[in-house]
Write a structure and sequence with these properties.
Elements: E1 2-9, H1 10-13, E2 17-22, E3 26-31, H2 41-52, H3 56-59, E4 62-66, E5 73-80, H4 83-101, H5 107-129, H6 137-151, E6 159-169, E7 172-181, E8 184-191, E9 194-201, E10 205-214, E11 217-224, E12 228-232, H7 237-256, H8 275-291, E13 299-309, E14 314-323, E15 326-331, E16 337-342, E17 346-350, E18 362-366, E19 370-375, H9 380-416, H10 425-435, H11 441-444, H12 457-474, E20 482-483, H13 484-492, H14 496-507, H15 509-515, H16 519-527, H17 533-541, H18 555-571, H19 581-591, H20 594-608, H21 618-634, H22 636-641, H23 646-658, H24 666-679, H25 681-694, H26 696-700, H27 705-713, H28 724-731, H29 738-768, H30 776-796, H31 804-807, E21 819-820, H32 822-832, H33 841-852, E22 860-861, H34 862-865, H35 871-878, H36 889-898, H37 918-922, E23 937-938, H38 939-952, H39 959-984, E24 1002-1003, H40 1005-1012, H41 1016-1023, H42 1028-1039
Antiparallel strand pairs: 1-5, 2-3, 3-4, 4-5, 6-7, 6-12, 7-8, 8-9, 10-11, 11-12, 13-14, 13-19, 14-15, 15-16, 16-20, 17-18, 18-19, 21-22, 23-24
């Protein structure tokens, strides 16, 4: 590896280095103790120091020095971890520079010339390895070369970060280096002559956590399915842990949840991921979660500043975040003050002159004659220019959207109301408003749920006045200042007349609705009358939505709910419809108009509760896992008395999915929904902890899970209003922040995805095991190999040439969730086949794939791969060519045998039967005489069948005996076929005429089987089971040779 020239004193260097080769200008040196077996104590000590100390000269065991005659100062220009590498650099210097340097007269010119050449070589390497993207390209290049040399992973494995760390085995530490790449984490150590390497794929990591093993030592614990490892470092523990969690999350979601997780464009290509990209991604996810922005928003600018807050009469320090369509401000103290301004609302962005009292000021004016003042804005010119540019773009888009909306209305008039004179877009809009509910259901149905306590009118009026005062001081609408005062007002309860407006404001649904004019109406026009699985599920759940509420005793309300849910199913077909969406939509319809309820549902399902409402409810399960950890941290006494918290999840899951609407009286639950739209999921988590805390004694006294569930099903607050302690809890800011919840989600998503993966494997083995005679342990190992083949292509396949959605889909049946294409199948076939067929092996493997690919989609699932039939039947079927009506059958047969099928699937003659799949490859069943109605062999096909048998015997210990047995069987079958052919060419006794004299020679599977059974050597050969465990172990070592951790 070429290095930036660095000065060293040659006299000092000779104490630790041995010169191997030299000439007038260059020295090749070896580190003492390296390169020789059985080194001295000095060599062992130097080797240990090389690992523990962060020094280029000490780490590399070989180096090349540039020296000038008569000088004690030299320059290190190259280093290497192996003799081969350093010798290549030495040879290049000798061949390209040595003679050229002899013409220089000045020693300084020699040094300057060589340094320039070395820097040029470094620049070429930096461009090829993308290290220029890193903060310190030179240092990263050195680490990358060591990573590639030490672990031998393909060059496409992208190194992201590296740290000096210590790996613990019990109480024994081992100092070394931790390398974090896009698909693996790796550790290397060389201490006192002992080298240790381990590589752990992220896909094998089931848990990442920080633990305190001693009062003075925090470690990162990495748990896999086989073992756990502890890593500690003197500095940057939090940084390392955050990077590991991010990389594990990205890898697992890319490999295991590719359909349910939409990665950012920059993360879809693992080769583009750097440490800087991870930091930006973490910040972006925090901003999206803090302000509930759409997932497609990109973070543009981040700058510290001070925002003028009129209610506090001061400038509040914080951070300004700008995205594609929004301007966001968060105070330095999280939760103290936040502000969200859609750029579509911005009228102008101005830069007043600097003053001593208002340095670097910026004035942002919005509609409604409001303005926001920022001062001390870092990089003010850049931020303002970027903001102004995006504001101009949004204005153009807004005008185009308005024109398009008008054109759509005119098209609607022309198509559906042609001939009606005097109709205008306004008339049509008014007519469309009559189709849907133009006002909230609660304004029509003033009744409350039976038995509910209604607040007296004066109290409701007082709440309205409090909110009106708040609006006058803090602003109204989406760009309202959100402070602790708003928290307290929401906790006390939002008045019914303002509830819908504030829900739309807090959730950002009002902005989305304004940005997508007529989107809801378009969805209704396109979806009504269209039947699908989602609409069938919606119809089943319509009358289960708040059945006790008077508003939903009317068909008009049911129809409105149907329209909202159906429109959302067409708006987001990936989610479609999920249970509990009907309950949320019902609550929203009570306080908002129909279109507003639709956009509230969009905000909840896609931004506020991401990944909650899909087939696997991954997001809800992640938050359940977070909830359990919070119980252990904050309700430690309850956790000790009830160690198994899993039964609680069956009840708490409905709390999260329905926001406590199904667990509390409606008048109490709607106040929880109020807090949810202001605080997000943190309100649900805090309230859930309060419920468990209030019921801690009853839960601890439960004798079984059923009794504990009964305690939770009758909520602690079966009366209204909410207790004062709960109101206080929701009004306070608390110590559970959005940033903390997001970090917990990252960690627990790893566990949830791995639990899903383990469940899928268990179910796949349960389905396949009854059909094969392979032990469950071997079948499990075979499943892992099958899955690893898919992962390897995702790790290091050519970008863009592999579509993972075709090969893995969690929504498929368990035994079909992973599928291999032909090239992947051939790779595994060559490693696991019970016998190879010499030059015909590849052709037989291709035919095997075509035989197993019953649905002809060019993919084979695990059931097909692991559920085959006996060997002889397989060989017979593989030699039956595809049906064709061409008269030149012999030519077709020869082509079928010598050329691989193209396309790689065929239509087999005779009745298509699904062959059962692993014993064909692995040979675990004995030969039996059960006969299926296969097509007959012609003479050419039989000859090729015999050739395959002969090729299978190459290298067998009984090759001579088996060859004689095959010759005997071949002769017997030929005679049988000849006799049968002659008999069919003559008239029978009854006078019926047989086939024409030129009919083909044929033989059946039953005849071949009977002939084979006459030779005991062949029967023994086919009945002998293959050592499957040895095959799997050998293949595992080959496929996962980098993934098996070494022993520390």
């Amino acid at each position: 590896m070429w290095l930036e020239p660095e000065e060293v004193l040659l006299k000092t260097a000779l104490k630790l280095w041995v010169t191997e080769r030299s000439n007038r200008f260059f020295l090749l040196q070896r580190r003492r103790g390296h390169g020789h077996s059985g080194g001295t104590f000095t060599g062992l000590l130097v080797g240990a120091l090389d690992t523990m100390l962060d020094s280029n000269a000490r780490v590399a065991p070989y180096r090349i020095l540039l020296q000038t005659p008569g000088s004690q100062v030299s320059w290190v220009i190259a280093s290497g971890a192996a003799a081969e590498e350093i010798n290549r650099h030495w040879d290049w210097l000798v061949q390209n520079l040595l003679q050229l340097l002899s013409v220089f007269e000045n020693e300084e010119d020699v040094a300057s010339f060589v340094k320039g050449k070395v820097k040029g070589l470094i620049a070429e390497e930096l461009g090829g390895k993308r290290t220029v993207q890193e903060d310190d390209p030179e240092k990263f290049r050195e680490a990358l070369l060591k990573f590639e040399l030490r672990f031998g992973l393909p060059p496409s494995e992208k190194l992201v970060a590296h740290y000096s760390c210590c790996c613990w085995k019990g109480r024994v530490p081992r100092q070394g280096w931790l390398y974090l790449s896009t698909n693996h984490m790796a550790f290397y150590s060389f201490l006192l002559g002992k080298e240790v390497k381990m590589v752990i794929p992220w896909v094998e990591v089931t848990r990442l956590e920080r633990v305190s093993t001693t009062p003075l030592r925090d470690t990162i614990r990495v748990t896999t399915r086989r073992r756990q490892r502890d890593f500690s470092m003197f500095l940057s523990l939090e940084e390392v842990f955050s990077t590991m969690v991010q990389l594990a999350n990205i890898a697992l979601r890319r490999l295991l949840d590719n359909d349910g997780f939409e990665l950012d464009q920059v993360l879809q290509q693992p080769g583009d991921i750097t440490k800087r990209v991870l930091e930006q991604q973490a910040l972006k996810e925090y901003v999206l979660a803090q302000f509930w922005l759409p997932r497609q928003e990109s973070l543009q600018d981040v700058a510290t500043c001070l925002l003028w807050t009129p209610h506090a009469r001061c400038h509040t320090p914080g951070t300004l975040y700008t995205t594609d369509s929004y301007l966001c401000f968060a105070s330095k103290e999280e939760g103290l003050c936040t502000l969200l301004v859609p750029l579509a609302e911005v009228v102008s962005v101005e830069k007043p002159e600097n003053t001593s009292s208002l340095p670097d000021p910026v004035i942002i004016s919005v509609r409604g004659k409001r303005a926001f003042q920022l001062i001390e804005l870092r990089e003010r010119d850049t931020v303002v220019e970027s903001l102004a540019k995006r504001v101009r773009v949004l204005r153009v888009q807004d005008r185009k959207s308005l024109v398009l909306c008008v054109l759509l209305l005119y098209d609607h008039i022309f198509l559906f109301d042609h001939g009606a004179p005097g109709r205008t877009p306004r008339d049509l809009a008014e007519q469309s408003a009559h189709v849907v509910n133009a006002e909230a259901l609660m304004s029509v149905f003033h009744s409350s749920s039976p038995g509910a306590h209604r607040s007296p009118f004066p109290k409701e009026e007082a709440k309205v006045r409090s909110w009106e005062d708040h609006f006058s001081e803090y602003g109204r609408g989406v760009h309202m200042f959100r402070t602790e005062k708003a928290w307290k007002l929401v906790a006390m309860g939002i008045p019914e007349t303002l509830r819908g407006e504030l829900w739309l404001t807090f959730s950002g649904a009002a902005v989305e609705m304004a940005a997508h004019r007529d989107h809801y109406g378009s969805l209704l026009r396109n979806s009504m009358g269209v039947s699908s699985l989602a609409t069938e599920e919606i119809e089943r759940d319509l009358h289960r939505s708040l059945p006790d509420h008077p508003a939903f005793q009317n068909e008009a309300a049911i129809a409105a709910l149907r329209r909202v849910l159906t429109a959302y199913a067409h708006h987001n077909p990936e989610i479609g419809y999920c249970q509990s969406m009907n309950i949320l939509a019902s609550v929203m319809l009570l306080y908002t108009r129909e279109e507003e309820a639709f956009w509230l549902l969009v905000a909840v399902c896609e931004r506020m509760l991401p990944d909650y409402f899909n087939r696997r409810v991954i997001g809800a399960q992640v938050d359940q896992s977070v909830f359990e950890e919070l119980i252990r941290e904050r309700l430690s006494e309850l956790a000790e008395r009830v160690p198994d918290l899993c039964p609680l999840s069956s009840v708490s899951l409905s709390w999260f999915l329905t926001l406590f609407v199904s667990a509390m009286p409606f008048s109490s639950a709607v106040r929880v929904v109020d807090c949810f739209f202001l605080h997000g999921v943190t309100a649900v988590l805090r309230l859930g902890l309060a419920v468990l805390d209030a019921n801690a004694d009853a839960l601890a006294g439960s004798t079984d899970d059923g009794q504990a569930l009964m305690v939770l099903n009758r909520c602690a607050w079966d009366r209204t209003p909410l207790p004062a302690c709960v109101i206080y809890l929701l009004a306070e800011r608390g110590d559970l922040t959005v940033r903390q919840v997001e970090q917990l989600r990252w960690r627990h998503r790893i566990q949830v995805l791995q639990v899903h993966e383990d469940t899928a494997k268990e179910n796949a083995l349960r389905v396949v095991t009854p059909d094969v005679s392979i032990s469950p342990e071997d079948l499990g190992d075979l499943y892992d190999l099958f899955k690893t083949e898919h992962f390897i292509r995702l790790y290091w396949g050519v970008e863009g040439s592999y579509r993972p959605q075709r090969h893995h889909d969690p929504s498929w049946p368990y035994a079909e969730q992973y599928r291999l294409d032909r090239s992947q199948f051939l790779s595994l076939y060559g490693l696991l086949a019970p016998w190879l067929c010499g030059p015909h092996t590849d052709t037989v493997a291709r035919r095997t794939f075509a035989l197993l690919d019953q649905d002809q989609d060019l993919l084979v699932g695990f059931r097909e791969f692991a559920d085959l039939n006996e060997k002889i039947r397989l060989l017979y079927r593989l030699h039956i060519p595809p049906e064709n009506s061409s008269p030149s059958r012999l030519c077709k047969l020869r082509s079928w045998w010598t050329d691989p099928p193209a396309p790689p699937y065929v239509y087999w003659s005779g009745e298509r039967r699904g062959l059962r799949a692993c014993e064909l490859l692995l040979g675990c069943l004995e030969v039996n005489a059960q006969v299926w109605p296969f097509a007959l062999f012609c003479q050419w096909e039989f000859i090729q069948f015999c050739k395959t048998l002969y090729s299978m015997l190459e290298g067998d210990s009984n090759e001579n005996e088996l060859s004689q047995a095959i010759a005997t069987v071949t002769s017997l079958v030929l005679r049988i076929g000849e006799v049968d052919h002659r008999s069919r060419c003559t008239e029978d006794d009854s006078g019926a005429k047989g086939p024409e004299p030129d009919s083909e020679w044929t033989v059946s599977f039953a005849q071949i089987m009977a002939s084979l059974l006459t030779e005991q050597a062949l029967v023994t050969f086919f009945e002998t089971p293959m050592d499957l465990r040895a095959k799997i172990a050998s293949t595992s070592r080959l496929r996962t040779k980098f993934f098996v951790p070494a022993s520390c």
